[in-house]
Write a structure and sequence with these properties.
With 116 residues, the protein is of the alpha+beta class. Helices cover 19% and strands 41% of the residues.
């Protein structure tokens, strides 16, 4: 079956101290979904568990993201998370600390039940 994209949400998350890419990524996902309520899913005869949720995280060091931890930020659906090069890192003036900024794109899709 083909998937139909229903919602695209974007978010940003920051780890101010510690360069924790996973923490920044989780905050970006939380930011993306914080104001969403997908009531239309039931109107289509589906449940929230029928959703496919594809997350792309942009961070300076994609290998530093624990994608399974990020996936736990999503309460429903079949979740996939991938980390790619992106985001931003702001160096501190005097020590080795930095601010890590992550961007998230959260895409929710449903099966079209053969309608295409």
């Amino acid at each position: 079956m083909a998937r139909v994209r229903c919602i695209t949400e974007m978010g940003m998350g920051v780890d101010v101290h510690g360069r924790d890419a996973t923490k920044a990524a989780k905050r970006a996902v939380s930011d993306a979904i914080r104001h969403s309520s997908l009531g239309f899913v039931r109107m289509l005869g589906k449940t929230p568990h029928d959703m496919f949720v594809d997350v792309t995280i942009g961070v300076p060091d994609p290998d530093a993201v624990d994608t399974s931890e990020v996936a736990k930020e999503l309460p429903y659906g079949t979740v996939t998370v991938k980390a790619v090069k992106g985001g931003l890192e702001i160096q501190a003036e005097s020590d080795g600390d930095a601010i890590t900024i992550a961007n998230a794109a959260v895409i929710v899709s449903l099966d079209d039940d053969g309608r295409t």
